[in-house]
Amino acid sequence: MNPEIKKLQTLIQDHKISFDYLDADYLDLKEYYKAVLFEIGGRVYKIYVDHEYKDIDRKIPELSLFLVLRELELVAETDTFEIWAAEQMIELNDQIRNYYLDLKSISKEIEKQLGSLDPILSQMEYELNAGSVQELRNR
């Protein structure tokens, strides 16, 4: 088995991670940011993930974990709300600012639990539909 996919599966099993997929819940009504409920350590977090390729609709736990970790890593590495919103092409408003601040806090909690926010899969493979990402999408 692919070692990257195995690592995602191990995280899911070891940390009892699960997902609940929401049908029509989008960040700031942008259909390219869809909500997923991410459960870890007995807590449930609502996280909006990149939905450009409709991967969250595939309901593949390993791919879902990659998307969640990718969003958490991105917000953790972003210094300000304004920079994050500009990078995500999201309008500046109080609702989005509150979500960003919540996500900053969530990212710290998840990093403590997992030891890292590394999404494991390659961003390049994600964008090019190659390697591990392609293997997951073809399930």
Write the layout of secondary structure elements.
Elements: H1 3-14, E1 18-26, E2 33-40, E3 43-50, H2 61-77, H3 81-88, H4 94-114, H5 123-128, H6 131-137
Antiparallel strand pairs: 1-2, 2-3
Helix pairs in contact: 1-2, 2-4
Give the uncertain stretches in residue-range form. Answer: none
Compute the CA-based radius of gyration. 14 Å
Structural class: alpha+beta
The percentage helix is 40-55%
Q: How many angstroms does the end-to-end distance come to?
A: 13 Å
Number of helices: 6
Tell me the overall shape: globular
Record the strand order, biggest sheet: 1-2-3
**The biggest beta sheet, please?**
3 strands, antiparallel
Number of domains: 1
Strand residues, percent: 15-25%
Oligomer: single chain
Please state the average pLDDT score: 93
Number of strands: 3
Give the topology string: H per helix, E per strand.
HEEEHHHHH
Descriptive key words:
139 residues, alpha+beta, three-stranded antiparallel beta sheet, 6 helices, 3 strands, 51% helix
Written description of the protein model:
The protein has one domain. Helix content is 51%, strand content 18%. It contains 6 helices and 3 strands, in the order αβββααααα. The chain has helices spanning 3-14, 61-77, 81-88, 94-114, 123-128, 131-137; strands spanning 18-26, 33-40, 43-50. A 3-stranded antiparallel β-sheet has the order 1-2-3. A hairpin with a 2-residue loop joins β2 (33-40) and β3 (43-50). The longest helix is centred in the C-terminal third of the chain and has 21 residues, at 94-114. The two termini are 13 Å apart.
